[in-house]
Amino acid sequence: MEDTYHTIAGKSEGIYKEKSSKFLSFAFPVKNTEEVKRILEQFRKEYYDARHICYAYMLGHEKKDFRANDDGEPSGTAGKPILGQINSHDLTDILILVVRYFGGIKLGTSGLIIAYKTAAADAISNNTIVERTVDKEISFSFEYPFMNDVMRIVKEENPEIISQDFDMDCRMVLRIRKSEFPKLVHRLSKVESLVFPDQAEIC
Q1: pLDDT digits (tens, 9 = 90+) for 83-96
Q2: Global pTM value
Q3: Sign of the four-CA dihedral 165, 169, 153, 175
Q4: Nearest-5° angle of CA 73, CA 10, CA 96?
């Protein structure tokens, strides 16, 4: 089961210069479109004097949520080359912006593609690529007398404990790597009194 993906460790910058035009590139790790919008708004305020702020992003381990934006450059000359670098490095949960300051000399279609591609590649090369695991969460409740049974499983399977509430009715939320999820669910389901409130969570 494929349950890993690659992203970047933090923010990084790059630069490309061609015929007096400057292409400043910035790479950010992001988790959702809200983060993307917030960063874009920040850049549009900070670099208000730039000719173009082009970008591309990829979200999710399945890489189904992505977008490329040319911001006024000829179609396919900016956002697509940036997205191409994200794909060629097999990255996700990433946003790359390239801020262009026009130098007065047109670069042509091929020149723009090279510029945005190179600037994006520079931002990636100045970062650290890290591997992450695809995780799943499970919530459940059980009666207090079965605490030892549950905790023994938790100790042996070693999931991350997101929350726990130990009272007469105990509740826990655990997170574990996707490939190890079925085994954890199977073992927990054998514990007497244990209930999964939402059956959808254990699929």
Answers
A1: 999 999 999 999 99
A2: 0.80
A3: negative
A4: 10
